Amino acid sequence: MTSPSLETRDLTIRFGGHVAVNAVSCAYQAGTLTAIVGPNGAGKTTYFNLISGQLKPSAGSVLLDGRDISALPASARCHAGLGRAFQLTSLFPGLTVMENVRLALQSRKRLGLDLWHVWSDHKDLVARADAVLESVALAGRRDTVAALLPHGDQRKLEVGLLMALDPVVYMFDEPTAGMSVDEVPVILDLIRMLKKDRSKTILLVEHKMDVVRELADRIIVLHNGTLMADGEPEAVIASPVVQQAYLGMAAVEEAA
Ligand SMILES: Nc1ncnc2c1ncn2[C@@H]1O[C@H](COP(=O)(O)OP(=O)(O)OP(=O)(O)O)[C@@H](O)[C@H]1O
Ligand SMILES: [Mg+2]
């Protein structure tokens, strides 16, 4: 049994009297994509915020490669290898695609944010930036200003920036939300590609059960902040708690 790359122990947060995440203990192994499902308000995003350091827990801890990172701020967790995709908030809209990737690589190497001076001294970064742009299929857009990219390409760039940071753990919170039907497969392809790297640990919050079914090696279910189910996708999907949550959401989507 390999040691987990990421683990939460009794992770808990209370907002006033409401327990949004309730003593969630779960370990995640490298080479595994774990889907986190559950109805709206179940605590999925809050759980991510606790792991990435956007929120401080009321109790419990977060471990990365066996090291307790609970006391670290979000930026230090990012440097330690926790990679979280934030919808478009990590893009510099006024800079080109290539400049955005450069900045992500420089921050990874702690080279500061001087775009021009640093870059000419680090040819290895140029090669790495090219490789990142290739892998997210944006090589042809390298000189386009990020704000002028179509929405789907902006989302690809966001995944590219995450890849540039080369995290140990990738966290995606509804990565296809708000995307058009032709944009969704692009993001799913990127996640499939990341999955092939068996050294990575991927956490995916996703409501679309067909996506979960295809991508997940394991599913955990959050319900009212509590871990309700954890296991092989088919078994978890067939469980009454998921059936109820999924049917509930389908009804909401139909009504919308
Ligand atoms: N900063 C906050 N202050 C107070 N309550 C909060 C805060 N953040 C989240 N909550 C509450 O915690 C609960 C869990 O919310 P969360 O956003 O984690 O759910 P979710 O599972 O991500 O839902 P969705 O599927 O709709 O994205 C909700 O009741 C929410 O209102
Ligand atoms: Mg959420």
TrEMBL record:
Annotated keywords: ATP-binding, Cell membrane, Membrane, Nucleotide-binding, Transport
GO MF term list: ATP binding
Pfam families per the UniProt record, alphabetical: ABC_tran (PF00005)
PROSITE patterns tied to this protein: ABC_TRANSPORTER_2
Span of domain ABC transporter: 6-249
Protein name per the record: Amino acid/amide ABC transporter ATP-binding protein 1, HAAT family
Domain of life: Bacteria
Organism: Noviherbaspirillum suwonense
Membrane-traversing stretches: none
InterPro entries: AAA+_ATPase, ABC_AA/LPS_Transport, ABC_transporter-like_ATP-bd, P-loop_NTPase
Coiled coil spans: none
Gene3D superfamilies noted in UniProt: P-loop containing nucleotide triphosphate hydrolases
